[in-house]
Amino acid sequence: MLIDSYDRVVDYLRVSVTERCNFRCQYCMPEKPFSWVPKENLLSFEELFEFMKVAIDEGVKKIRITGGEPLLREDLDKFIKMIYDYEPAIDLAMTTNAFLLKGTAQRLKDAGLKRINVSIDTLKPEVAQAIAGKDVLKNVLEGVDEALKVGLKVKVNMVPMKNMNADEIVDVLEYCKERDMSVRFIEYMENKFAKADISGLKSSELLEILRQKYEFEDEGFDGSSPSHYYRMKDGYRFGIIEPYGDDFCKQCNRIRLTAEGNLIPCLYFDEAMSIAESIKKGDIKGAAAVLKEVVRTKPEKNRWGGEDDEVSNRAFYETGG
């Protein structure tokens, strides 16, 4: 079992298999050129799997595949099957923009994937194009439909932004509710890679919009999830993720691995340790030692909204933010 210095059990590993993405979302990397880390710098699926085994043996119970956009990496289903075959009880999930999901959902499900998170920031094609930098909505919605059809559980994330998609909060919630999908509204997280003029909605503003149509009760946090949940009278639940508070840090159970092998204790912090050298040399004990040290030094909470009003230098597209 992995336990950090604040007595939190760390049993959730997010694994970025690529920094590449086929979207250029304004809140993530709108100006990022199509130049990438050379393929030879990335850990192979076999090398990543060697570390997955270490993490599972040390007590990790949930693994989420992220990117960039993970479906851009060829043979992703084979990597998922490696993990599933090693430990069928592992909670295997993936975060995707769903653009390529329609043609891959069945293979992913057959490989052992259980759940996906999809970003749906709008239901209007022209707004989706403005946010992502290309015409994407049709593919995304078809991908979601296919995922539901093959039996994957789907959760939707939305980042509401003023003068962009804030008027669609209710529409996106209703879209999810009709399909029995959970939705989480995420406060925009300032970072140096995002477009400078973005202004996100705070949780208080979100709740005020939703109260104009719905009645709901505050349910607080659910286990180690970063979402603050609310339940409507008909039982439907929605969540809000508030990075500018640190309430969810108290029960944070996750660490992150980049495709190059950097193990990161917190999404906000730039600090990381590499497991690449150990894994490439077959030094399993060395990789396990790095894992334990990263867990030991995991910070108590993030720095968003602190006295210095810091903006993260973390490239979220490298860590599945």
TrEMBL record:
Quick one: which residues bind [4Fe-4S] cluster 2?
A: 249, 252, 266
Q: Which annotated residues bind GTP?
A: 14, 64, 95, 155, 254-256
Q: Provide the Radical SAM core domain boundaries.
A: 5-222
Q: Which InterPro entries match?
A: Aldolase_TIM (IPR013785), Elp3/MiaA/NifB-like_rSAM (IPR006638), MoaA (IPR013483), MoaA-like (IPR040064), MoaA_NifB_PqqE_Fe-S-bd_CS (IPR000385), MoaA_twitch (IPR010505), MoCo_biosynth_MoaA/MoaC (IPR050105), rSAM (IPR007197)
Q: One GO molecular function term?
A: cyclic pyranopterin monophosphate synthase activity
Question: What's one Pfam family here?
Answer: Mob_synth_C
- GO biological process annotation, one example: Mo-molybdopterin cofactor biosynthetic process
Q: What does this protein do?
A: Catalyzes the cyclization of GTP to (8S)-3',8-cyclo-7,8-dihydroguanosine 5'-triphosphate.
HAMAP family assigned to the protein according to its UniProt record, in alphabetical order? MoaA_B (MF_01225_B)
Indicate the family of this protein. Belongs to the radical SAM superfamily. MoaA family.
Q: Name the chain's protein.
A: GTP 3',8-cyclase
